[in-house]
Amino acid sequence: MEKIAMLGGGSWATALTKILSENGARVDWWLRSKDDVQHLLRTGHNPRYLSAVQFDRNLVYPTTDLTDAVAEADWLVLAVPAAFVQPVLDKLGRDALRHKSGVVSAIKGMIPGKNVLVTDYVQERFRLPAARLGVIAGPCHAEEVALEKQSYLTIGSPDVSGLANSFCHLLRNRYVSAHPAADLDGIEYCAVMKNIIALTGGIAHGLGYGDNFLAVLVSNAVQEIRRFLQAISPQPRDLSASAYLGDLLVTAYSQFSRNRTFGNMVGRGYSVKSAQLEMNMIAEGYYAVKSIHELNRQLKVNMPITTAAYNVLYERIAPAVELEILKEKLR
Ligand SMILES: NC(=O)C1=CN([C@@H]2O[C@H](COP(=O)(O)OP(=O)(O)OC[C@H]3O[C@@H](n4cnc5c(N)ncnc54)[C@H](OP(=O)(O)O)[C@@H]3O)[C@@H](O)[C@H]2O)C=CC1
Ligand SMILES: O=C(CO)COP(=O)(O)O
Question: Does the model's pTM come out above 0.80?
Fold first, then answer.
């Protein structure tokens, strides 16, 4: 039996724990909330995220003890939002992951302040070879996994035929298709950037812009993402694949999108703080836009959408003013 340590207590950790445990893996699940762990132990349900999902208590072992959760696992899956993951990882000893089959990040964000990809941080901190790292990507909302709607995941890793293939095998089921891919960095950066685009689309929607504008925003976003990836991680890649374009589309258009919802509130006049409080979930794009903007100070890629989102969220430019400027730059 494969043993997996799942880190994170939110929607995506809950959905992935459902998929993995229903496929017969043992999941040692680290959550930060003692109350949530107690509730899971008592009832088999995560009380605050996808609470309808019932877990098999012979396969799923919730705990607040991080070292315990990780100790015996073959695989580590990271599903703590990027803004909070570094302090969690830093509690583990530098050799704690040395014998794992792989560390797979399900996080779509960057380490704030350091502005590095989560897998780059893990590789450096735990001195792991790149071939032991992977990302879980693709257009997939936790809410639809809970409802067992057909979904597609891509596992990116330099070790396509080993790590990526093996992890796909752990995920595939009646309603989840999983495919391996080699472009770890490109997939991870794209997953970060699509959140910024969806957030900006949400701002536009909140201001009253319609579907015509959103379609143009998304088309321009593909070009912006292409330019950025070409500058930061140049290699041939097909951006129309679902790990890139599919993820951008689901986030930009879905009712479940946290980033779009957050942007929509900002467009309607909520402050960042009140939008965050009201959502009760994490919009990674808010943090990502700062990292990408700062990274781009050196790269100097033309990124009008990211610049607009940064100006609204961090320079306190009125959304209506910033969108007026952005609209002139789109084609
Ligand atoms: N939801 C989805 O459909 C998908 C999410 N992802 C990615 O998964 C990652 C996790 O997101 P998701 O599961 O959606 O998160 P949610 O928005 O569902 O939940 C938020 C999580 O963040 C934790 N959290 C909030 N504030 C803090 C803090 N200050 N310190 C530490 N932890 C905190 C919460 O813990 P608590 O409840 O204890 O407050 C909770 O576990 C993100 O990178 C996201 O982009 C990727 C694909 C799909
Ligand atoms: O990445 C995700 C789905 O693929 C989740 O992010 P959003 O909730 O913002 O769409």
Answer: yes
